[in-house]
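Thanks for the sequence, V.! I ran TIGR03749 family integrating conjugative element protein right away. Repeating your input here for the record:
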Amino acid sequence: MKRLILACLASAVLAGDALAVEVMHWERRPLAIPLPVDEERIVTLDRNVRVGLPPALANPEVLRVQSAGGVLYLKAFEAFETQRVRVQDVESGDVLLLDLSAREGASSEEILVVDSREASPARASASTGSSTGSRGAQASEASRPSAQASGGEAQQATATPVPVLLTRHAAQSLYAPQRTIEPLRGVSRVPMRLPESLGTLLPSLPVTATPLGAWRLDGWTVTAVKLENNDRQRAFELDPRWLQGDFYSATFMHPYLAPRGSVEDTTTVFLVTRRGGLDRALIPLEETDKAEEGVS
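Predicted structure:
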């Protein structure tokens, strides 16, 4: 099996010319983010991250956290006092601290987090100039500070690798509110030509893998696959090296699967392939059986 390359997901600067966004600057000090109760708040980051929750927030009945395409989707189901959450960059290992709290009536405005150490003067100016400015213009300034506001979408697409764009688009299409899905020129949803269950994708784990949808752009295809833990006793950390097939990248929406029957027993993996869909990248069942016989 070829070693998989984890796609480094760029920040998802979501679409909507008239949508407001609150800009926060990360300067090595915790960022205070109040959450409304029973309403989702979106936090856009400049990196693909993993989230570490304190015990008080680890209960999915208190807080739901989803991470996809460089974006955190946070939803509090009840009010709680300030709790510190550790967010780590998957690629660099850098840590960002969020002080989360939840209360009735808190703002649900989207948040864009900018790393002040990396922000150029042009980018910082674009970020701080107006909290209600065009998201498309902010995307252009963030990805190419010297670019003009016009043509921001095309410039962002040029600067960001297609696998990253596709993975982000698929995650948003499945899980983000419709109004926040970033338009991606040329992308199309395509038939998967897959069985209902993919038994050879993760043969070493007791999981059910169910294809959800596929999208294609410029010869690249991303397929979203739902993973469900069938073991009621064990939880599993997810490692892309366990996946069987010829993939360019694999991105898990969550880092682990909890035991079956819990809220976190299901996640989604986004698999990117080149020159064909997932049906061509999977190892045929016959080859898997032969390999197992050879080992035994």
